[in-house]
Amino acid sequence: MKYQVVRNTKYDYAGQSYASVYPNLHKYPATMLPQIGIDILKELNVSSGTLLDPYCGSGSSFASALECGITEMYGFDINPLAVLISKAKFTKISLSEFLEAKQTFRNNIFEFLKNENNINDLTRPKITNIDFWFSKEVIANLTAIKYFIDKIASENVRTLFLVPFSETVRDCSYTRNNEFKLFRMKPEDLLSFNPDVIGVYLKKLEDTFFLYSNYYFPRLGNEVKIAVEYSKFQPRNEYFDVVLTSPPYGDSRTTVAYGQFSTLSNEWLGVNYARKIDGMLMGGIKPKRITTKGFIADYIAQVNQTDNKRALEVSAFYNDLGNSIQRIATCIRKGGKTIYIVGNRTVKNVQLPTDQFIAEKFEETGFKHLVTYERALSNKAMPSKNSPTNITGKTVSTMLSEYIVVCEKLY
Ligand SMILES: C[S@@+](CC[C@H](N)C(=O)[O-])C[C@H]1O[C@@H](n2cnc3c(N)ncnc32)[C@H](O)[C@@H]1O
Predict the structure, then answer these.
(1) Count of alpha carbons within 13 angstroms of residue 123, beta-carbon side
(2) pLDDT on residue 384
(3) Which of 3, 98, 181, 398 lies in the 20 to 30 Å Cα band around 276?
């Protein structure tokens, strides 16, 4: 191993969940525990300046940074659902405006649903295989909810209404809710599945408001500026002081399928490329040749001995991750820190040292590797086993540890 890894039990947080610090407003795959960000920023004495999270997902890094006194943050993600969740959590809205909108919404929707014919006048959303995923009644109710959410004038208030809408889409669809991938319920379960969509939504709306107003709103002072964009990170002239991020693990098509997890929500939200998202994520486009440069090359060569297709997929991921690090590196201020939280996944029985790859790439671009901590992974919301050998029944743990890789910009 080239860059030293220190096992640090302080970062295990055994028995702690995400919710013990900042409850999430919406489920999301592979969320980072905000506790990790809080403790590592404190350890590095980072309490001001600007923060970048180029793969911000549901925005856990912003929660960590706010807790440490950082008030200016920039996030990027190419999954619109992720951006929606992050924006909802970290945009300050007027609570009274929200409550007023909630009352109007309730009155309007109940009035509207009194006449069954009203629903026929609404335009149905464009959802692929809609009848496969939703019953007629669920489609009608979701369409009505979305219609009245779209009538809310304030964009920020609307965003907070859309978060429980997305969860309602998920919960009231025929998907198996304990999976990240899009699988339909068993036929015998479909018959008895008859959710009260409006009831589910209104309950989730209450819960969302409770969490937002108690955990997020109080921390969003006037000085706080958190900007989140639906896009890959775009290099810009400004300098960031710290990067805190947990990039995808390179298994978006297999294990942690962000796109699949979000497909139905994204389609209901009006995103017309929802089904293409997993292909757009890092490593989504395969190169013609496998990677032969750097520390990772030997590992990819080992994968290639048994499976060329998988070796190309792995190469695609590291090519993208390396290019992204290069772009990010140019935008960090001298003395600035980068904190990447990653897992070393196993492909074809080869454990891929992503932590080492990241340290190496940063060192190639004017950084010094400061430390890598290894933490035991016990509470991340992701499958712990998969079948990387593709031999039925033969599974290995996808990840038992996570690595916190810290580098500093020298020049
Ligand atoms: C491990 S998750 C981040 C989770 C986040 N830390 C949280 O707590 O919710 C990785 C994220 O990277 C996003 N992503 C994948 N490829 C991307 C790319 N090229 N540019 C921006 N975001 C990307 C995925 O949509 C996903 O939300």
Answers:
(1) 5
(2) 45
(3) 398
Cα 55 to averaged position of ligand 1 atoms, centre (Å): 4
If phi > 0 it is left, if psi is from -120 to 50 it is alpha, else beta; for residue 354 that is alpha
Ligand 1 centroid – CA 281 distance (Å): 8
Residues framing ligand 1 (Cβ under 6 A): 28, 30-32, 55, 57-58, 60-61, 76-79, 82, 232, 246-248, 258, 281-282
The answer to whether 128 and 275 have CB atoms below 8 angstroms apart is yes
| Helix ranges, 235-307 (H) | 258-268, 277-280, 297-306
Output the six-digit token pair for 131: 């009848």
pLDDT tens readout for residues 313-347 = 999 999 999 999 999 999 999 999 999 999 999 99
What's residue 254's pLDDT? 57
Select the CATH number that applies to the domain covering 5-92+225-409 from these four: 3.50.50.100, 3.40.50.150, 3.90.45.10, 3.20.20.140.
3.40.50.150
